[in-house]
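Morning - pyridoxal-5'-phosphate inputs below, output right after.
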Amino acid sequence: MPGFELFGDKERKQVNDVLDSGVLMRYGFDGMRNGHWKAKELEKALEKRMQVNHAQLVSSGTAALTVALACAKVGAGDEVILPTFTFVASFEAVLSVGAVPILVDVDDTLTLDPIAVEKAITNKTKVVMPVHMCGSMADLAPLKVICEKHGLILLEDACQAIGGSYEGKPLGSYGDLGCFSFDYVKTITCGEGGAVITNNQEFYKLADQYSDHGHDHIGKDRGAEGHPILGYNYRISELHAAVGLAQIERLDDFIATQKRNYTILKEALEQIPEVSFRRVPKNGVENYSFLSFFLPTEEMARKTIKAFSENGVDACFYWFNNNWHYYRKWEHLKDLNSLNGFSKELREGLPNYNMSDFSISDQWVGRNISCLIKLGWSEDEVIARANNMSNLIKKQLS
Ligand SMILES: *Cc1c(COP(=O)(O)O)cnc(C)c1O
């Protein structure tokens, strides 16, 4: 998946444009910048590739989620439904706007189960946040129906899924708001960076203002700009945007390479009847950044991942035991270890995460192994890896 694997002349050229002008700031300095507006250009490129009216670049994926929630006016005591399997950033963003993360079970898609979502809705629910973990999506059509029925916002955390699609729409563009991350390990990278995409003009206006101290970006004189709302600084720099501009041009090539490598691995593992695969919803196309499969039991999955690591099969993850991506090891959330406390609304709204029953998620994630698909592998290397993985899995099963 990582764009950093194929980093080179195109990125260097874009960055040098910025270094030559010396304007590292995305706004203002019109006279000095020799016509270079890397952040604006990357926003235009994202709008085109994602088929949306608006893209707002920000400093990270976490910032994108925070800005998306803020521009949808999600705040004190509002509930946001998200899956037990995600990166910690998803709930960090929710907490940072004073809202309550409500974790619900995943299904065989490894992301939000629509039935579990509907059950979790209360009169405080404001947002449903599917997280397209490891490059594939939830059943988005039923989630959209649920959101429309209850008047909720559908916010896609597409940080790991850029380049995938659903019903012909790029992931991130299907809901009311979509978020991407361009951190160093994502499919395409800016070093650090993120984006909010939307077709909603009002959300976009507020995202643009909120991410730059509430400035309205009207008129030529930065110092005379109005600030209609209180904001924050979530700006991306021109240097980071320049890297992203080179990378987004390569996105479709990256996806094609991932698809080739993914397909070789999948075709090999398909020969093993006991192995099943993560369900990709009908009309969904993943971005092939990971191959995620299930073993018949948790014990078998544990034995397999151990055999992989002892026999040189790197880049595979057993998320069930992972500190960052699965609720079991989120002690900081369970113990509410906040540095500065929580508002009364937030404290009163928070569920007791230690008492929650996520045994259904455990049954899926406990049997899952996800293998990162690298861009740099040659076809021969992938074939050798596929054989090695198949043999090791068969050994555990026998
Ligand atoms: C990486 C990631 C984020 C956060 O992105 P950063 O750019 O690292 O802040 C959020 N959600 C998911 C699912 C991610 O994988």
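Note: Residues 60-62, 86-87, 89-90, 131, 157, 159-160, 181, 183, 194 surround pyridoxal-5'-phosphate (CB under 6 Å).

O.
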